[in-house]
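hey all, quick one before standup. I had two proteins in the batch that finished overnight and I want to keep them in one place so we stop losing track of which output belongs to which input. First protein below, input sequence then structure tokens straight from the run.
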Amino acid sequence: MTVRALTTAEDSARALERLAATARQDLFIAVPHLTPDTPLQIPELRERGLEAWADMLALLTRRGVCLRMLVADCDPVTAPDRHRAAWAAASGFADVVQGDAQVICAAHGHQVSGLWDWRLRRRFKPALAALRSEDPARLTATQRQVNAKGPAFRPAEMPQSFALKDDSACVLGGPDLSLAIEDTDFCGALRGHFTDCWTAALKTGAKSLAAPAAPLDSPRRPQSRADMRLLRSQSRPAAGFAPRPLNTDHESALTRRLGDARHCVVVRTRAFRHDGLAKVLAEAASKAPDLQVILLLPPEEGHDWDAARAADLQAQALNTLRKAFGDRLTCVEAPGTVTTAVLIDDATALIGSAALTRRACRWNTEASALVQDPALAKALLDQIGAQFLGTGTDPTNMRRAATWTATCKAWTDAPSTSARSPLPDDLF
């Protein structure tokens, strides 16, 4: 087993390029931020005349590498810009790949039904009107179908981010933080997960934009290692607003490990709105009088469905932690955060796509690695701490909330207003 932490955007990009460039048989990609014109960073690739990812994938597929790319789509009414970007990326890659290459752009299979569908059509009537007023030539096929037949709202998404080559090595995580893993057991489990996602995409009726889509076999499905587990969040379509949770590994694993924390917990994530996990941490505060909690959060951004409710739920979660920890808690700004990292007691590290929200832990399709490795956990905290506190910070002080409070810009959250929404809280 080999695990390497990549804590900068440049390191993550180079590791992803190196993984793809060295594929010999299979390459499976589910990386939302990847586009055909994403420039390559490795000098050796650029010296060969490869300027962007489209060039490299075109070369690999000409050489006979089997490529399966799953581009995550999203709701075309509530998130039209992201929806168009997904289809533009998928189309751009499909235009250049050759041979045994299949590129699918698919959304989560769950669609809102029943009374909820009627309520959402009323709620998003202005967005639907704006969509119908646009030039049809600018719309995707999905948006044109919405104009013709009406919307099919999709509250669950697929933010997972990983690439896997030859069932032996992978890069898992986002553009700001990732892990490079070489382990056949973990990669075999990840291959099985990709197969499940591919099968679910085909069930939605998704078609490949390159070679015709076909089912994907998973010849072996090993369990991931005990000291390096693959965590998944998955759900299946159901009647009503919410999909039915199928795998809730993130929620169960974090509930156990945060509840047992005794010294220091560092959380870096896009959002912390999971009230259950906030309560687990709050209860740990009374069990461990010296437990320090360091939260790294980006400034609150808009939410596709209801920004006010999302902000209110995060404020409630942070207030729960402040009451429990007092000055043993710090919350500082971490702009540009995409990937979630949870580091516990210099022993456990969770790296992956799932934010600490109920939707990410129950509805979305997410993938993370949970690694029990003190050396990795310490190295990650030291590197993240150096980015925010400076390289000269004493490692012991780096694990104290007061150090971060005195050094970093505090994260300012909106006060809890009990803002209500007609939508389920799990959506946020």
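OK second protein, same deal, sequence then tokens:
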Amino acid sequence: MTYEEVEIIEVEKPSQLAGFIKVPWKIYAKDPNWVPPLISAQRDMLNPKKNPFFRYASVKTYIARHGGENVGRIAAIVN
């Protein structure tokens, strides 16, 4: 896979946020040492109404896609 084959999409919809949150489940699916976080905790962490971090910072999230599948995620943060 080359970087030209990877598409970066900004997360703008709730369905995309769900995909962003679930990327690690795909990446670490075969790692017996991986302990997945609670999905609800991940949603709260990314929710500006529930996380006080957003009072001082702004965050944009992106999903990396290859061949129609989510293969990575990016968070750009300005604090």
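Flagging for whoever picks this up: The CA atoms of residues 20 and 58 lie 17 Å apart. The radius of gyration is 14 Å.
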